[in-house]
Structures are given as structure tokens and as C-alpha cells.
Amino acid sequence: MDYYSGYISKLIEELSILPGIGAKTASRLAFYILDMPQEQVEELSQSIIDAKKNVKYCKKCFTLTDQDICPICASKDRDHKTIMVVENTKDMAAYEKVGEYKGVYHVLHGAINPLMGIGQNDIKLKELFERLKDDVDEVIIATNSSVEGEATAMYISKVVKPLGIKISRIASGVPVGGDLECIDNVTLLRALQGRVQI
Amino acid sequence: MDYYSGYISKLIEELSILPGIGAKTASRLAFYILDMPQEQVEELSQSIIDAKKNVKYCKKCFTLTDQDICPICASKDRDHKTIMVVENTKDMAAYEKVGEYKGVYHVLHGAINPLMGIGQNDIKLKELFERLKDDVDEVIIATNSSVEGEATAMYISKVVKPLGIKISRIASGVPVGGDLECIDNVTLLRALQGRVQI
Residue ranges of the C4-type zinc fingers (chains A, B) (predicted)? Predict the structure, then answer.
């Protein structure tokens, strides 16, 4: 990196920290940024600072928001007795894009992963159980269909069931448009086990 | 993008401007940035501003540098009578990494590309010809082996030849370690035409 001016090397180094950005991509991005109009560069830099400064956890559901209580938790049109538990804000956004779900969310910010040293106290589980002291009809677990997501789902279900609250897990199966021959065995098995009468 | 806080949407939008960064990658990067420690975020943002503010063209070779005259042009150990013409600073860095070349450079910042409306006045060609008024022994053209790079090389050679300055083009052929059966026809033909006696 000594072939570039210190400022360019520094920029490349900083960009390389980002996930999925290797040295080559970082240098491509750096030279692109140097070529951008001044205002655009300032806007990019400012948006990074602004997002970091203003975005915090919603005090109820722990999604990332710029308000104390996020718009969904604050909305009177949502069913506050149904809580969908997701691993992160992006998963919540995925369901919001669908638009059909009218309940509220709880964002865990991760999943239980003993191998990575992430235990039940490292994600927002305590905060979820705290919420269940209010009037809640159903908890829908929408953690990922990975080993960690399943383990987290299992743990939540163990704690919630004795409380007499209805608990459900989003269905696992063949994705719409999926070609059976391209789908892994576990998914095929799950789809069979979860078959519904038509 | 309405599913996120305005600050997050803005950050995603700004990151999407960068080349090769689509909506999905931009949102992955944005959430990663939100998760980074405060100082690291500030450093990233500052490095963008610093690079844009301090990096300019070297007054001699037009590479990107933070000095008036870049370290290579200022060096007494380099052969200032040999000029290698490259399309951009990254290409210059590629040759500097090899470390064998002892001459200086001239960075065009592009190549002639009529389809994209880039003519001979849109890249640093005038500035190259200006430099040739000094005592220059050889001009080595190291533009890319693309249609635009070749057209630029041809144009430079046409202008420089009448001046009685030695002009050369870096060799085109099979890359070291390249498998003949995987190499395109034009390269194979070039390699044959450019064969050297052993």
C-alpha cells in the first residue's frame, strides 16, 4: 500500500474493515470516492456519522430506530398482543415488506451460538420475557432456519410455554418457485413433516 | 426502504452509490457500520473526507498524491528520461509493486473512448505531450490491452513518433501460468505474432 498517498492507503484500509470488502474492492471504492463530487463525498461521510449517532434501540422491541419508541411499537393500528421474534432489524424489514403482518416485533440482535460464545444473556431474550408480563396472546418465533436460529427458538419455546401463552414457529419447507431437485434433504424432510391437508 | 429509520435508509442509499454495491450489500454494510465501535465509525468517515480533501494530481505525472509533486517524480533515484504512460493510479501502483521499473510515469486518467464521449482532450494527453518537450529518451505505453487502451496507445504513438523519441508498448501475450486452452483467440494470435527467439 506504500504505492499510494497516505490518505489513499488509509481510506483503503478503513474500507477493507467492512464485511465482504477485500483489498481489491476497497481500492476500487477508494478511487471511486476520490472521483466523486465534493458534496457527494461529504454526504456519504455525514450519513455514516449521522446513522451511528442517531440510531439506537427501540425501548420496547429493540429494533434500530431514531426514536425512543419505534413507529411500529408506537402505532395504534398494530396488534400489540402478537409479538414476532426475529434475529435482527433486517429480518423485521423483510416481514414489513410483505405487509401482511399486523402484530409487533421483538428483535433479539443475534441467536444463541455456544461455539461463538453467544449465550442467552448476550441477546435480547431477558427483554422479551419481560414483555410477556404484559397482556400477550401469541409469540411467533421467526428466527432463521439455521442451527443457531432453531436452538434459540427451542429455548424461547421452553420458557414461554409454561406461561400459557400461545407460541408458534414460522413454517419451514420448500420455498415458492423452488425446484425440488435443488433443495437440500433437511428442507425436503421438513416440508414432508409439515405437510398440510388440501 | 421505509421499513428502516430515516438515518439508516439514508446511509443505505449513500452506500448504494458506490460501484458494485447493490441494495442488499449496502444494507449489510450499513448494519455492520451501526454495529462498529464509535471511534471506528468516526475514523471511517474521517478517512473519506481526508482523502477527498488532501488528494490531488501530481503536477508532473498527474498521479493521485497528497503532495504537489509525487514521491516518484520528486525522487533523484528514478530515470526521468523514461516515461511510462498508464491509464490510472492503480495501474501505476501495479508496476510499482513489481519494483523493477526505475523510470517515471504519466497517468492519463482514462483512455480514448468515443462511444462514451471521451476524446483526446478529456484525458491527460496534452499534459503528456507537454512533458515530451523536456529531455525524454523513451515513452513506454502501458495502457490496458482493451479496445480503448489500444486506441489510446495508437494515438500517442502517432503523435510521439515524429518527435524522434523512442516509443514502445508493453508486450501482449499469454500470462505466466496461463493455460493455453483457456486463453482467447486474440491473445493467442498476439502471443504468436510477438514471439521472441530463445
Answer: 58-73
CA-CA-CA-CA torsion for A8, A9, A11, A13, nearest 10 degrees? 160
Q: How far apart are CA A34 and CA A37, in angstroms?
A: 8
ipTM over 0.95: no
- What is the residue whose three cell numbers read 510515469? B105
> In whole angstroms, what is the distance from residue A1 CA to residue B96 CA?
10
d(CA A153, CA A156) in angstroms, rounded, equals: 5
Over 60: is that where the pLDDT of A1 sits? no
Euclidean distance between CA atoms B119 and B126, whole angstroms = 12
pLDDT tens across B22-38, in order? 989 999 999 999 989 99
**Reduced to 3 states, what is the DSSP secondary structure of residue B132?**
coil
Dihedral of CA atoms A152, A156, A159, A162 in degrees, nearest 10, equals -140
Could you read off the pLDDT of A100-112 as tens digits, one per residue?
Answer: 899 999 999 999 9
* pTM of the full structure: 0.77
Low-confidence residues of chain B: pLDDT under 50: 1
The dihedral formed by the CA atoms of A30, A32, A34 and A39, expressed in degrees to the nearest 10: -120
Secondary structure tally for chain A: helices H, strands E: 8, 6
Mutate to test the interface with B, among A1, A8, A84 (most CBs of B within 10 A): A8
**Residues within 8 A of A (CB atoms), B 104-123 only:** none
B23 interfaces chain A, CB cutoff of 8 Å:
no
H or E element, residue B140: strand B138-141
**Residue A120 to residue A125: CA distance in whole angstroms:** 6
The type of residue at A45 is: S
Q: Which residue has the higher pLDDT, A65 or B191?
A: A65
| Whole-angstrom distance, CA of residue A170 vs CA of residue A84 | 10
